[in-house]
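Workshop exercise sheet. Pairs work together: one partner reads the sequence aloud, the other fills in the structure field after running the prediction. Swap roles for the next sheet.
Pair: D.N. / O.F.
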Amino acid sequence: MEIKYYQRYVEIKEAKKLLELEEDLIKKEILHDLEVAPEGKIANEFGKFNRSTRKTYKYSEKVDELNEMIKMRKVDEEEQGIAEKVETYYITLTKNHVK
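Structure field:
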């Protein structure tokens, strides 16, 4: 067991959180720039930046009801052993508090 791997894992997780927060702040600024840019595009020495859209949908009450019925049916199949369980492994981390 290499303790350095565990230490580095914690360092990477912390760095990712900070970088993602910074990315979100910067993204808002860039999106604002792209909003006022011609054709929603900016090119500079770092690359080409485009403002794109992603569509999402809000469905009717009937479709929402059908989705709820499907969720209940899934639970039934899980409980009856009809649904096939697929397990994947991942790491959970609870950091020690340094005094």
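Discussion prompt: The longest strand covers residues 41-44. What would you look at next?
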